[in-house]
Structure formats: C-alpha cells, structure tokens
TrEMBL record:
Name used for this protein in its record: Diguanylate cyclase
PANTHER family: DIGUANYLATE CYCLASE DGCT-RELATED
Domain of life of the source: Bacteria
Organism (species): Shimia litoralis
Domain GGDEF: 174-308
InterPro entries documented for this protein: DGC-Regulatory_Protein, GGDEF_dom, Nucleotide_cyclase, Rev_trsase/Diguanyl_cyclase
Residues spanning the membrane: none
SMART domains from the UniProt entry: GGDEF
C-alpha cells in the first residue's frame, strides 16, 4: 500500500489496496494527515514535520472506523517537495484481512504479507478439517454409545442401559418406580409358530410399552421375554396400577403373524423406591422381581406391588 503526496501533504495518487482499505472515500485531493493519525513520532501536524521523519518508522492509525493500526516509511521525492509513503499492516495483518476482505491479489507478489496470508489460509483449512473430523468422531461416539445401550431386535434400551440409568435415579434422590415385566405363554409362541413369530410378538410388545410410557421413562428389554420399566418422578399407586393394567390388557390382545394368532399375556412386579431399604440398584430390581414372582404364583396376567415386609400387596 502506498500514497504519493504533493508538497502540501495532499494525496495525489494512491495504490489500489490503500483505496480498498478506505472503501468509498476518495483519497485523491485529501490531506494525508486527515486520513491518518501519526502516533509515533509525536507532534507530526504538517507536511514539514512529516518530511522530517524520512527513513524512520511511522506508527499510524486510520482516522475513521475501523481504526486499523498501520506501519509506514516516508521517502521524499526530489524536486517536487512531495513524498511517497509506503504502508503495511505489520502484525495487524489478520485484522486487515478480516476487516477489508483482502486477498493475495491486494499485495505485491514479493510482499512478505503473501507468505503470512498463505499461512493463515493453511491454518484455517487445517482448523476446519479438524472441526469436521471432531464432529464425525463425536457422531460416531454417540452412535456407538446408543448402539451399546439399545436392544437390536426391539429398539428398546437394554440391560446395560438399565445398569447405567438406575443408579443415576437413585443418586438424584427423587422418588421413582420400577416395573419388572415377564411375558406369559411366550415359550408356547416360539414352540408353536417358530422364532420369527416370537420376534414379531416381542416387537409388538415393545411398541405397546413405548406408547404407554413417556419419552423420559426408561423402557428396556433385559432378557428373552423380560422387560424393565423405570418411571422417574412421583406417581401414585392408582396411576401405576392404571399403567400396569393397560399394558397387560393390550398385550393380551392376540397378535397376528402370517395368519396365525399368537396369544400371550404379561405379569408385572412393581417396586417403589420409597419401599426399598437399603436403596440400591440391585435391591430395587430384586424387589420388583420378588413382586413379579408373586404374580406368577397368583395365576399370571396380574400385577403386584412390593411391600417392605417382603410380602406383596395389591395383586390384581
């Protein structure tokens, strides 16, 4: 960047890059010291004192916004009384590129600024490539974690997910409930209609469970025909009874597979966190399983609540 000044310090010619920095301002005919504030040397206020800095490094700042810092060197012109001022951004080159959308076309091919621009461009490209790679790795990690916590047949969560979520519910300290559910007569479906029919029934049960729960509840298949449901937040026994009964009633509806009726039912053991002492993950699952065992003995297609005295109440 350069500007040619006449004997009065008025710009009579400017380089294209300097003109680009000043955008729509017409530099020709404007006093140089109106365009720039000379920060060092101090007390530069006219052309005479400006010519006195010949050969010394000038520290300047644009007088309008953005007030970009610049470096400069003045060289007097013989005979005319004028001068040429050569300007550069120095260490402010990054701000200059950003503020004025400068490219390598705005600098001479021999200007060291070109090398810096190439380095900046290479750094930006490397950072963008790193960002995209990090996003891909993060996506792959999330997908792997999701896969590790998902039952591939039903799309529900699996036992590993329960082992992860249940301790967090306990640590949170809020009341929650746990349903341990087992399908009745499921073995007969596999024996009579084959494993594809059994898989179809399991997928149907999974849809029922998802539809009867909230998005923030945990619904997991933890074994062949065994399921665990974790309900966060307080629920009354009436609410839990209603959920259990709806699930059982819907699961008892025959499932059609290739024209054949597949008939199953379900038994559900319910443990409420307030009734389990000591409260730990194993104890909660054991309590719900104990209530489930009582359901099986009571004739199946029922639900029951675990009681602290190790008996079960409200078998229905």
């Amino acid at each position: 960047m350069h500007a040619v000044l006449d004997r009065d310090g008025v710009v009579c010619h400017s380089g294209p890059t300097l003109q680009k920095v000043y955008d729509k301002t017409d530099l020709i005919g404007t006093k140089f010291l109106d365009l720039f504030d000379v920060l060092r040397p101090r007390t530069i206020n006219d052309m005479g004192s400006l010519l006195g800095t010949a050969g010394a490094k000038l520290h300047l700042r644009k007088s309008n916004m953005p007030q970009t810092a610049l470096k400069g060197v003045l060289v007097p012109l013989p005979d005319t009384g004028g001068a040429i001022v050569n300007l550069s951004f120095g260490i402010s080159i990054m701000e200059g590129v950003r503020d004025y959308a400068l490219t390598e076309a705005d600098f001479a091919a021999t200007d060291l600024t070109i090398e810096m621009l190439y380095l900046i461009e290479a750094k930006s490209a490397a950072m963008e490539a790193s960002r995209k790679l990090n996003l891909r790795l993060q996506g792959a990690m999330i997908a792997a974690e999701e896969q590790a916590f998902t039952d591939t047949l039903t799309g529900l969560k699996n036992r590993r997910a329960v082992d992860h979520i249940l301790p967090r519910l306990i640590e949170h300290g809020a009341k929650f409930s746990c349903f341990q559910m087992d399908l009745d007569f499921f073995k007969a479906v596999n024996d009579t209609h084959g494993h594809p029919a059994g898989d179809h029934v399991l997928q149907h049960v999974a849809r029922v469970l998802v539809e009867e729960t909230r998005s923030d509840d945990c619904v997991a298949r933890v074994g062949g025909d065994e399921f665990v449901l974790l309900f966060s937040g307080p629920k009354s026994r009436i609410q839990m009874s209603s959920i259990a009964r709806r699930i059982i009633d819907r699961i008892e509806t025959p499932v059609i597979f290739k024209g054949a009726e597949c008939r199953i039912s379900a038994s559900i053991g319910i443990a409420v966190s307030d009734d389990v002492d000591p409260l730990c993950a194993d104890a909660v699952l054991a309590a719900a399983d104990s209530a489930l065992y009582q359901c099986k003995n009571a004739g199946r297609a029922t639900y029951a609540f675990y009681a602290p005295d190790h008996r079960c109440d409200e078998i229905a």
